[in-house]
Amino acid sequence: MTIKQLQYIVTTAETGNITAAAGKLFISQPSLTSAIHEIESEYNITLFHRSKKGIELTPEGDEFLGYARAVLEQTNLMKERYSGKVQGKKHFAVSSQHYSFAVEAFVSLLKSYGGRQYEFHMRETQTYEIIEDVAKLRSEIGILYLNSFNETVIRKTLRDHNLSFTPLFTAKPHVFLGKDSPLAKKEKISIEDLAPYPRLTYEQGGHNSFYFSEEILSTLDCDQEIVVCDRATLFNMLVGLNGYTICSGVISEELNGPHIIAKPLDVDDYMEIGYILPRAIHPSRLTQSYIKLLER
Asked: pTM (2 decimals)?
């Protein structure tokens, strides 16, 4: 295996077409195909499914691609360190539950380190997807929470994927509401106060287990339940339907607008919010910088 072969595989995966990838790499199509076969033979794996429509990564190929990208990133860092020259486009990806502070840190990182060429990904996604993204190196870092209810299951899932969890802070549960909600004037909100209003939660896809819910107290009965996929939709419905969602209480008016407020929820619970990383890979310079921004 060579660094050049890894670059060939990454480019092929990104283009989804052998001919297009060969043109982008300035090599012949047979040479590219041969390089891919050499890697597949060396490690006894199949990286791509091939059809008349093109190619797509196999599950093995998807995992291999993450490691290939990590190796290429570390190689570029070495070149930059010892040659003083920037090595092409910067790549960085975060997978996170829906936290405004994670987006703020991402924006700050981009402003500081993006440069003239970059490809940064901010994935606000489902809890299990966050774990898989980091395990398969689609993202360098993931952000999620633990509490007394989900901790055993989440920590086991992290161990199974060879990931570590590092706490950032512990938050008391809050309720996000529209500023004109009938509950907005209360200093503290009880579970009983919430009963007449629709509860908004984030879709968790195929792993729609209570343990992977982004909201705490997900097992409580609720007569009116609305499930959404993105933060903008959730906030619009908080305002338009006098709905609520249970969260950390950390909110950014700059990112989320002036119409959403957070009120303490009167329950004995907590959210330990932190980040997950692969145990076997040293964090990149961008990942370390992002962690410092999260902590700040």
From this structure: 0.78
